[in-house]
Each structure stands twice: as structure tokens, then as C-alpha cells.
Design a protein that fits this description.
The chain is of the alpha/beta class and about 180 residues long. It has 5 helices and 6 strands, in the order βαβαβαβαβαβ. Helix 4 runs parallel beside helix 5.
Length: about 180
């Protein structure tokens, strides 16, 4: 599938997400669809990512031109999930229009590789970000520094000022730790 960042949205959020923004996710996808967004990238982590992908599947039922792209950081990722989340993961892969596998196996930095891919290939990031550090914080900070629009669905959470740093040069392709462009 060929997609361009100008019509592409990506998701980032905490694994501890409890499903409390399910309706807001669907409404946000609808609002972005009305703005011309058609491709939705999901990093396929437990928690917010998987819930976001399920919301996109709802959107796909309403709009034939919505595309779901599963961005899987490494093969066998789902083996680290509990049975319920593993089943949700597999169901999403069946519904996805495309699956992008970034690395055949786990290696240090593979999640950062996935997060960079999401930011580099989207113009809007929908987040479930509570202000804490970690992968979601890294992704939000990088998205903002790359000039991406960030929509944070976490209740009453303002993105910390330290995340509003200077702009950096961002590319539309990333390399994994072996120097292979993805």
C-alpha cells in the first residue's frame, strides 16, 4: 500500500490504557476522516494501540476508503501478550489492509524504531499520554519536534512544556539499528 503522511494518522499510548476513551477514539477518527485522513497506522502494542486499531475497524465499516496499517515492531511480538490480547492482536491483523514488519526478531531499540516509523509516516498523532516518561512520552516529544499535530485524549492532561522543544529535521524513512531503511 502506498500512503502519504498528509492523509495519515498514527496512534501512541500507554499499555495501561483501560478502554475509557473508546467512544472518544471513534469520534476522533470520524472527525479526522472528515478532514481527509484515510490511513491509520497502529503500532500494535497492548493497551491504547490495540484499542485504537479496533476503533479504526469500526470506522472501516462506515467508510470503505479508510485503511488500517498494522506496524508490528518484530515478529513474535504477540507471544509476549496474554491470551486475550494475543487474540485481539491476531483479529486486528486479519482486518488490517497491510502489515508492516519492522524487524524479524526482537532487538534493543526495536520499539523506538516502531515509534519513529509512526511519527515519520504520519502528519497527526492521536495519543493517550498521561505526561509520564517512556515510549509514549518519547513519541509525543518526537512528533511535536517534527511539527506533527498531536491530539491527546487523556483526560485533563496537558502536554508538558518540556515537550515543546525546538523543531528537528525528520525524515520519511527510518533505519533500524543495522542501517536498513524501512
Amino acid at each position: 500500500m502506498n500512503f502519504t503522511p498528509s492523509i495519515t494518522v498514527a496512534f501512541t499510548g500507554h499499555r495501561s490504557y483501560d478502554g475509557s476513551a473508546a467512544d472518544m477514539l471513534i469520534d476522533t477518527i470520524e472527525m479526522l476522516y472528515a478532514r481527509g485522513m484515510r490511513v491509520f497506522l497502529c503500532g500494535m502494542a497492548v493497551g491504547f494501540d490495540i484499542s485504537a486499531a479496533e476503533a479504526v475497524i469500526v470506522g472501516k465499516a462506515l467508510h470503505h476508503d479508510i485503511r488500517l496499517v498494522a506496524v508490528v515492531p518484530f515478529g513474535e511480538q504477540a507471544l509476549r501478550f496474554n491470551d486475550s490480547d494475543r487474540e485481539r492482536f491476531r483479529a486486528i491483523l486479519k482486518e488490517a489492509d497491510e502489515t508492516i514488519l519492522l524487524s524479524a526478531e526482537y532487538h534493543a531499540g526495536v520499539y523506538a524504531l516502531r515509534n519513529n516509523y509512526l511519527v515519520d509516516h504520519a502528519s497527526i498523532i492521536i495519543a493517550w499520554f498521561d505526561g509520564s516518561s517512556g515510549g509514549t512520552g518519547y513519541t509525543v516529544r518526537r512528533a511535536l519536534s517534527c511539527g506533527r499535530e498531536v491530539i491527546n485524549l487523556y483526560p485533563n492532561e496537558v502536554i508538558p512544556k518540556q515537550y515543546m522543544g525546538r523543531k528537528t529535521k525528520c525524515t520519511s524513512s527510518v533505519e533500524d539499528k543495522r542501517g536498513i531503511a524501512v
